[in-house]
Amino acid sequence: MYLKSSPTTLKAHLDLSVKENFIFAAKVVRGAYLHSDPRHLIHDTKPDTDKAYDDAVTFLLSHDTPVGLVIATHNRESVDHVRNVLTATPAAAIHDIAFAQLMGMADEISLDLVAKNKVAVKEGGKKIDVIKYLPWGSVEECIKYLLRRADENKDALSRTAESRDAIWKEICRRGGMVGKSGKVPELPEKI
């Protein structure tokens, strides 16, 4: 969605699926080729790209035709946005949906999605898969891909404390250390 033309392309492909009577499916990504694509084709700012991403997901989930989607993002705000749209979307309108993140990135977001998904299913909502993917191959085959992911996720360092707290909460939950009030014990200074 970092390309300015992506919303138009997305709409054209969805329209074609309606015309040809097949279920449209897509993996929605921000994009990671900022340094190789011509600059004039790319959104001017990251907030413009973020808006295009969120708008694309809203468009696809709000369309009257069921769609299959993989929401590929490590961005907390986009994940929260998708969940809000899903809350307002009838489960019958969603053909299939999954969140996908690179193994080792945004694990706190993945854990939160899994926990919220369990609650949503118990309340009659549609099951949403959470996928952690792992690039496979030699270092030479994977390094450019991983460098692009690291470049587009520079904000991950700012989430270190959030990740640590989320992991501690999950350890406490799995270890039965969460009180009836839902209170999690404080994280020890040294583990």
How would you describe this structure to a colleague?
By secondary structure, the chain is α/β, with parallel strands linked by helices. The protein has a single domain, classed as TIM Barrel (Alpha-Beta Barrel). It contains six helices and four strands; from the N terminus they run αβαβαβαβαα. It has helices at 6-20, 46-62, 76-87, 107-122, 139-152, 160-174; strands spanning 24-28, 67-72, 94-102, 129-133. The protein has a four-stranded parallel beta sheet. Helix 2 runs parallel beside helix 3 and helix 4 crosses helix 6. The protein starts with 5 loop residues before the first helix and ends in a 17-residue tail after the last helix. The model has no long low-confidence stretch (mean pLDDT 83).
- Helix proportion of residues, in percent? 40-55%
Strands ordered across the widest β-sheet:
1-2-3-4
Output the radius of gyration: 19 Å
**CATH topology assignment:** TIM Barrel
Task: Work out the number of β strands.
Answer: 4
Q: What is the CATH class designation?
A: Alpha Beta
The CATH architecture is Alpha-Beta Barrel
Order of helices and strands: HEHEHEHEHH
